[in-house]
Amino acid sequence: MEFRQERHIGDILKERNIEIIGADLATRHGFTQVPNFILTKADISVGAKLAYAMLLKYAWGDDACFPGQTKLADDMGSGERSVRRYLEELEKANLLEIVQRGLGKTNLYRLFLTIQKHPTHGRR
């Protein structure tokens, strides 16, 4: 039996087998899909959801991302302090892992695109 290997959306987009007609300033630079469970997650702020979307935007091209917090803040229209708070929220919600790459280097961000089940405490 032959199994079809999953393809990464980045590979599909690189093939450019779809011609986009009518691209304007708003659509010329692409778009980012955000999983619905992120958009409807009640225990994270709107800012954390936007930070997650921005990290996805950076990551889709290379399967990894390591923007500086200054760039992230500029792109979000936010302050660096707020960005740090949003990233902490995402870490606490188990949606993001931040790996420090060394002094003077930007962090590596690992986004989790799946819902993680947590063990039920106090089962009866």
Q: Average the pLDDT over all residues and give the rounded result.
A: 78
Fraction in helix: 25-40%
Order of helices and strands: HHHHHEE
Strand content: 5-15%
Low-confidence stretches: 120-124
**Shape annotation:** globular
Counted by DSSP, the helix tally is 5
Please tally the β strands and state the result.
Answer: 2
* Secondary-structure content class: mainly alpha
Main beta sheet, described?
A: 2 strands, antiparallel
Distance between the termini: 44 Å
The radius of gyration computed from the alpha-carbon positions, rounded to a whole number of angstroms, is 17 Å
Instruction: Output the strand order for the largest sheet.
Output: 1-2
Task: Provide a compact summary of the structure.
With 124 residues, the protein is mostly helical. It has 5 helices and 2 strands, in the order αααααββ.
What does this structure look like?
The protein is mainly alpha-helical and 124 residues long. The protein is built from 5 helices and 2 strands. A two-stranded antiparallel ribbon has the order 1-2. A hairpin with an 8-residue loop joins strand 1 and strand 2. The radius of gyration is 17 Å and the shape is globular. The protein starts with 8 loop residues before the first helix and ends in a 13-residue tail after the last strand. The C terminus is likely disordered.
Features:
124 residues, mainly alpha, two-stranded antiparallel ribbon, 37% helix, 6% strand
